[in-house]
Amino acid sequence: MQPQPIQVATVGDEVYRRLRAAITGGTVAPGTKISIRSLADAFSVSTMPVREALRRLESDGLVVFGRRSITVANMTAEQVTQVFRIRLQLETLASEWAIQQVTDDDVDDLRDILARMDRDDIEVDEWRSLNQDFHRRFYDCARSPDLLELIGRVWDKVEPFMAIYASSVDDFTEAHRQHLDILDAIAARDTYTLLLRTAEHSEYTSRAVTAALMSKDT
């Protein structure tokens, strides 16, 4: 086997990675105006890699270039609801494929993730990260990188709003109960119940996120 050269990330790649994480993580809120010069100063780089990173984020649907300004992409409550409906269609397909191939070891991994989420002292950012890990770990069982990529792109569009929701609730008791119901269906290899519980969970999350969004805007 011929060794392949190691690819070192460019400055633009690193700026893109950090900005993307800040936007999808909710650190930079939807609708925020972005200054290329300010970002360049903050990252101690020239404006060129910042502009390149922002163009990539525009392709991802995470920022919007206007005539005179650049802003983090924003959505109305109705648009968020529509994205959740799209997300459900993709996750339904992933669930149908994944449950046919899930193993007992996979179920154990999912159970471990939920155990780590069920802590009184868990921080919001950690809960959000583990929440993604739980769903992604199961969908990995579908063995379809293309489907996972599509799901990931849809997730990215709503993650900034998930941050608003997660920061607005007192606890995640109901979400955890729903996750346990989903896991029970996975462990039983019960496709019908799994799809039912997945749809209920998606509807609950969609309503909670849009409610938090509308509350923030009032």
TrEMBL record:
Source organism, top-level taxon: Bacteria
Database matches in SMART domains: FCD, HTH_GNTR
TM helices/strands, residue ranges: none
Gene Ontology MF term list: DNA binding; DNA-binding transcription factor activity
Protein keywords: DNA-binding, Transcription, Transcription regulation
UniProt cross-references to SUPFAM superfamilies, sorted A to Z: GntR ligand-binding domain-like (SSF48008), Winged helix' DNA-binding domain (SSF46785)
Pfam family, one: FCD
Residue intervals of the HTH gntR-type domain: 9-75
Protein's UniProt name: HTH gntR-type domain-containing protein
Lineage, top ranks: Bacteria, Bacillati, Actinomycetota, Actinomycetes, Mycobacteriales
